[in-house]
Design goal:
The protein has helices spanning 2-9, 21-31, 50-58, 73-81, and strands spanning 15-18, 39-44, 67-70, 90-92. It is α/β, with parallel strands linked by helices. Strands 1-2-3-4 form a 4-stranded parallel β-sheet, with helices on one face.
């Protein structure tokens, strides 16, 4: 529901921050439908969870995420090597 609300209101904002993959992934997929979208920044808590591979490797959800904050170097490395997320989008915090 939050992802849908963010999508419906996206044109009002220059940037959207999501605090987890539960909203960030569905929002990213919806934002890809827009001709122009706001900047999307999210937190990737545990990108190595198996179910997230479908969304990042398969559906390329990261294409509508401009920055993904991760809490560990291991998650950053996994996201880059296994999920194909460009290193420039991944920020270890």
């Amino acid at each position: 529901a939050l992802a849908l609300l963010g999508f419906l209101k996206a044109s009002r904002y220059k940037a959207i921050f999501t605090n987890g993959e539960n909203v960030g992934i569905p929002l990213a997929l919806l934002l890809r439908l827009l001709p122009r979208r706001p900047v999307h920044v999210t937190i990737g808590h545990r990108l190595s969870a198996a179910k997230k591979g479908l969304f990042f490797r398969g559906l390329k959800a990261h294409r509508a995420m401009d920055t993904i904050f991760v809490y560990s170097k291991a998650q950053r490395d996994y996201a880059e090597r296994r999920l194909g997320i460009p290193a420039a989008k991944l920020k270890h915090i």
